[in-house]
TrEMBL record:
Residues 7-78 form the RRM domain. The keyword Transmembrane helix does not apply. Keywords: Ribonucleoprotein, RNA-binding. One of its GO terms (cellular component) is ribonucleoprotein complex. Gene3D superfamilies: 3.30.70.330. Pfam families: RRM_1. It comes from the Eukaryota. One of its GO terms (molecular function) is RNA binding. This is Heterogeneous nuclear ribonucleoprotein 1. InterPro entries: hnRNP, Nucleotide-bd_a/b_plait_sf, RBD_domain_sf, RRM_dom.
Length: 78
């Protein structure tokens, strides 16, 4: 298995309504998604507006970086 950090993609500017399942579904076309984690405020538990998606291989990250992305009608930064 490859280094997990090379297989991880930062996704910034996500809507607070975005779920981990929505992220997995969106990025599945680039490769096998092992998981996604939405960063949350420690005190309130509210989403912080960014997430990480982990793929099974780094080539999926490379493919995802080639495109622009809209999730829930919002352009996100990767």
């Amino acid at each position: 298995m490859e280094d997990a950090e090379q297989n991880k993609l930062f996704v910034g500017g996500i809507s607070w309504e975005t779920t981990e399942d929505i992220l997995k579904e969106h990025f599945a076309k680039y490769g096998t998604v092992l998981g996604s984690v939405i960063a949350k405020d420690r005190n309130t538990g509210s989403p912080r507006g960014f997430a990480f998606v982990t793929f099974s291989e780094s080539s999926a990250v490379d493919r995802a970086l080639q495109d622009s992305h809209q999730i829930l009608a919002r352009t996100v930064v990767i």
